[in-house]
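pasting for the record
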Amino acid sequence: MTFYYQKFKNLIRYLNYIFGVYVWILIIYGILRYIGLIKSSPLGDILIAPFEFITSLF
């Protein structure tokens, strides 16, 4: 049982890390858009796609 628990804990840890990096990229992208250093880019569409998908579910 503890083997599966450790695997689950590691999976959650990795997902948490990936989500944290994603949030920081969104924050930096938002700041750069706000101050006008980025006008429009395909990166923005890629970054916003998961957020739009999640909000469309609700």
